[in-house]
Design goal:
By secondary structure, this protein is mainly α. It contains five helices and two strands, in the order H-H-H-H-H-E-E.
Length: about 190
């Protein structure tokens, strides 16, 4: 697991730099947008990447803790290790979204300088995503305890917490017939 953590550390520190570079590229586009649609579009992407930076700011030191041997054992009973696995699995999806954001930007930014930078980032992060996805599948399989939630059967036939599903049926309202009459050019209900 230590070898994988070193690889994850390198991937996520590189990704962090790429996100910061991408956000710097988006910032002037947001500030000088031609219309509200363009501004909101890029602002939405910017905010998602900003949230990823916050998660990476939590996860990278967590990886460092385990690399320094201070995180405890790599066992499911270690809550810190479980948190690390959760963060890594979440960041797998973050990497996927980042690659999609880079793809979207490649459709919009046609100048050679940004195309080259975006293509380079996209290629590196796509490769990282594939690596992380593969490694996490193996790690998750290794640490799968075969735990089955004993309460999972409660939702087999619907959401047992849905209050409306268990409420008494409402009394049927009597059907009222409406009288229709003609007015100047239209029908109205009375």
């Amino acid at each position: 697991m230590k070898d994988e953590l070193t690889e994850f550390y390198n991937i996520f520190t590189d990704t962090k730099k790429d996100i910061e570079s991408f956000m710097a590229m988006l910032d002037p586009v947001i500030n000088h947008a031609n219309d509200d649609h363009e501004r909101l579009y890029y602002h939405h992407i910017y905010e998602e990447e900003e949230q990823r930076l916050s998660r990476l700011a939590e996860m990278i030191p967590l990886i460092e803790t385990f690399q320094a041997g201070k995180g405890g054992d790599f066992v499911p009973s270690n809550n810190t290790f479980n948190r690390l696995l959760q963060e890594l699995n979440l960041e797998k999806f973050g990497l996927h979204n980042f690659v999609e954001h880079l793809d979207l930007a490649l459709f919009q930014f046609k100048d050679a300088e940004r195309q080259a930078k975006l293509s380079e980032m996209r290629s590196a992060n796509h490769k990282s995503y594939q690596f992380v996805k593969e490694k996490l599948a193996g790690i998750n399989a290794r640490f799968d305890t075969g735990y089955t939630d004993p309460h999972a059967h409660h939702d087999e036939h619907g959401d047992h917490l849905d209050h409306q599903a268990h409420a008494a049926p409402a009394a049927k309202a009597p059907i009222q017939k409406t009288k229709r009459s003609f007015t100047v050019g239209s029908l109205i209900s009375k």
